[in-house]
Structure formats: structure tokens, C-alpha cells
Description:
The protein is 77% helix and 0% strand. The protein starts with a helix and ends with a helix. It is elongated and about 85 Å long. It has 106 residues and is mostly helical.
Amino acid sequence: MVTFGGFVTRLNNFCNDIDKFIESNNENIRRLNKEIKELEAITGENAIEYRRKDYLEALREDNRLIIDEIEKSAKDKNYKSEFEPKSAKILQALNAKSFKNEEILR
């Protein structure tokens, strides 16, 4: 149990430190707002698009299709897959484009 004198002392300490607490929180808010602005400058609409995004999406699609093919082959032992990865075609196109760029630079 807290005595009345102890309560008044705690209340006084809280009131004395409230200005420091407010200033500390305001400083944190300013710092975080600055960090948000810096991060917004390098992400979002300003972010550079990943060069191989199409390839990455094709790999993800191929992964999903492979899992489906594995499930089909597990159910039916005579199942013959006719799976052709989309990512291989995109990778060949990217490599050909890269090769052409290297030739131009030489």
C-alpha cells in the first residue's frame, strides 16, 4: 500500500520528468519521420524495377506447375508429364539480350 506522502512524491517525480519524456518522444518522432522519407525515396514508385522480374515470376509459376505435376504422377503411376518450363524460354531470351549488349559494347 502506498502512503499519501509516497503518492505525492511519485506524482511530483512524474511531473518533473514529463517534459524530458515529451522531448524524447518528439525527437524519436522527428528521427522516424526522417527515416520514412529516406526509405520512401529509395522504395515504392522510385524503386528500380528488378531486371529479371519476368524470369522470377516464371520460376514461381514453374514451381507451382511442378508441384501439380508431382501430385498427378503420385496419383497415377502411368502419368507422363508434358511439362515445359516457361522460365527456360525467358532465360534464353535474357541471355541472348545480354549477349547482344556485350557485342555492342565491344
